[in-house]
Amino acid sequence: MIVRPVRSSDLPALIALARSTGTGLTTLPANEERLAHRVGWAEKTFRGEAGRGDADYLFVLEDDDGRVVGISAIAGAVGLREPWYNFRVGLTVSASQELNIYREIPTLFLANDLTGNSELCSLFLHADFRSGLNGRMLAKARLLFIAEFPQLFGNKIIAEMRGMSDDKGRSPFWESLGRHFFKMEFSQADYLTGVGNKAFIAELMPKFPLYTCFLSEDARAVIGQVHPDTEPALSMLKSEGFSYQGYVDIFDAGPAVECETGKIRAIRDSQALVLAIGTPGDDATPFLIHNRKREDCRITAAPARFAAGTLVVDPLTAKRLQLNAGDQVRAVALSAARESK
């Protein structure tokens, strides 16, 4: 398996992946025209022809037979071309000494506070390949790419997590709040944001703070909670240093997590090394390894070991990276010490 930049020839496979994601992945809509445009723009991005506000680094996971089975991406900076909305969860205090009443009420403020940060997005892996190192490699390859090209990204990295919805795509937060202002199904609003139509959010969403006590009990309970299918991704990001700082999605109330770029474990601990080809050994640690290229980027995960300033990998790993002994690589242990293997 290798992670590499998307190509135009991948479009049919991406359409198939998009159709299998279900509701909740707004940055990968099953819209052929939109995806074709995105792939073309991603190719320009990897060639260095896009500014940070327009940059879209779209990667695919490819098996050794050339099949595309997963996708992930990095947005260079959110909100610099299209508005970027979140709810900031705050607190309003009401008190009356005369009546001996004191109330703390969580409040939702429509905010653009995360504008300008780089975003990890569009992570999806085909169900048949959710085993072994595949999921972690697809998700964390982006971090190693950022480590190699830090000048292309912001000082903070964010990731929006999918919020709670049932097996029919019904979101309790949407039913209690969004539906009253947008008069459409959650899936339709989710789709419209995915294809770039975000103006309606500013036009229809109230600008004043929203008191959560007016929401249903089910809606209040899911604020800042992730969908069960997203819990492994959240756990992985937390192990890398990401944390929830009180921002949630305006549609399903899923949490946004964030971390200063230089403090992300895979970025902070990565090293530039010389590649050596040999036998890593039975007790070798799985490493994430990048060929240090941009447009021809290739990243894989494989057992490796340090030896006299080199990183020793087996011949198949070197072949996947399209490298020879003596070439430069950037590498980091695939998992944080506290992350379950």
From TrEMBL:
InterPro entries named in the record: Acyl_CoA_acyltransferase, Arg_succinylTrfase_AstA/AruG, Arginine_N-succinylTrfase
Keyword Transmembrane helix: no
Keyword terms, alphabetized: Acyltransferase, Arginine metabolism, Transferase
GO molecular function: arginine N-succinyltransferase activity
Domain of life assignment: Bacteria
GO annotation, biological process: L-arginine catabolic process
Keyword presence, Transferase: yes
EC number: 2.3.1.109
Family matches, as PANTHER family: ARGININE N-SUCCINYLTRANSFERASE, N-SUCCINYLARGININE DIHYDROLASE
Name by which UniProt lists this protein: Arginine N-succinyltransferase
